[in-house]
Amino acid sequence: MDFSFSSNTPRRAPDAITAGTTLRGARRDAAILVTGAGGEMGHGLLESFASERRERAAAGETFPAVIAIDLRELPESHRSLCDEAFTGDVCDEKMLERLLASYEIGAIYHLAALLSTRSEFVPEIAHGVNVGGTLNLLRIAAEEAANNGRPVQFFFPSSIAAYGLPDLDAKSAAGPVDEDRFLQPHTMYGCNKIAGENLGNYYAHHYRKLASDRMEFPVDFRSIRFPGIISADTVPSGGTSDYGPEMLHAAARGESYACFVRPDARIPFMTMPEAVAAIRGLMAAPRSELSRVVYNVQSFAPSAEEFLLEVRKHFPDAETGFEPDLARQSIIDSWPASCDDATARADWGWSPTYDLASAFDDYLVPRIRARYES
């Protein structure tokens, strides 16, 4: 991806686009915006940008400022990787306008969201945050595109929660599910992800369709439907797909664990480093080579029992049993056992780094052991 866009004197977008906004500063620094930067995916992206900046500096090249937003103040480990950090809500339009007074945004990585389990307890709030926040950022991307005369890249992390298979028989018969089937999610989080995908496609291809002065392709929207993500560096926080990493972390701590799904429950997973690499890979791909805006990716798809067997190879004394929670199990049953990622492989060269065994051997177990032994 070419980040070498330059700052210039912005042109005011048409009034139909910029109603309610202020004219932005005559000189603004070129920037990448990362929302939800306080999470591990955000941290991984910030580290990736910092590494690229060092490489470019060594070659005498420039790199845009990296601006972070999170609802909570970023820890120093994150703050040190970005040029400026804002504490606030992506639904706060005034905060976003203050940010835009100083920075010309060329790319947005919109990671901020209310996650799946919490969203089921407060679905209306989840919709406001997950859809309203996404709409705010897409509007800003379109305004920046009009001001600066070029599209703004926009990354949106979607989820396997976007799927909704009707029952276990359909799940068994479906095989690897592509991006266009079974899009009737059973959770508010999944509904929000589908809404975000559709809004992104609208801003990319149909924004202000009837306006005579409409800009063609203002937002270069790209999205990945992530499977369950496993990290060695973050303790799971009760997400619907966290039964795998929860049993692994519990075993490493020497604690017992009651898995909330059946032994035969199956969904796809990938590691956090692979997720970050997938984001960078998709965003670096030439737009002309992309056949769609939303892509599946996955690395391995074990059953819960197969995951436990791998845990016990490394932690033989792991005390893990199965105590299915019917409500959470029903959500897992509505997600594909495997996702078809052939289009991502063909369009932008996606390829997983790990299978289940190598993920444990080369990434998860060494780092988790070091975490708890220290």
Q: How would you characterize the overall build of this protein?
A:
With 374 residues, the chain is an alpha/beta fold. The protein has a domain at 15-229 and 271-299 and 338-354: 3-Layer(aba) Sandwich (Rossmann fold), CATH 3.40.50. It has 14 helices and eleven strands. The protein has helices at residues 15-18, 40-58, 76-79, 93-100, 116-121, 123-148, 168-174, 188-205, 243-253, 272-284, 304-314, 326-333, 342-348, 356-373; strands spanning 29-35, 65-70, 84-87, 103-110, 152-159, 219-226, 228-230, 257-259, 269-271, 294-296, 320-322. A seven-stranded parallel beta sheet has the order 3-2-1-4-5-6-10, with helices on both faces. The longest helix has 26 residues, at 123-148. The two termini are 38 Å apart.
Percent of residues in helices: 40-55%
CATH class of one domain: Alpha Beta
Q: Tell me how many strands there are.
A: 11
Rg calculated over all Cα atoms: 21 Å
Order of adjacent strands in the largest pleated sheet:
3-2-1-4-5-6-10
CATH hierarchy: architecture of one domain: 3-Layer(aba) Sandwich
| Strand proportion | 5-15%
Query: What value does the average pLDDT take?
Result: 92
Q: What's the name of the CATH homologous superfamily of one domain?
A: NAD(P)-binding Rossmann-like Domain
Low-pLDDT segments: 1-23
Classification by helices and strands: alpha/beta
Give the assembly state of these chains.
single chain
Distance from N terminus to C terminus (CA atoms, Å) equals 38 Å
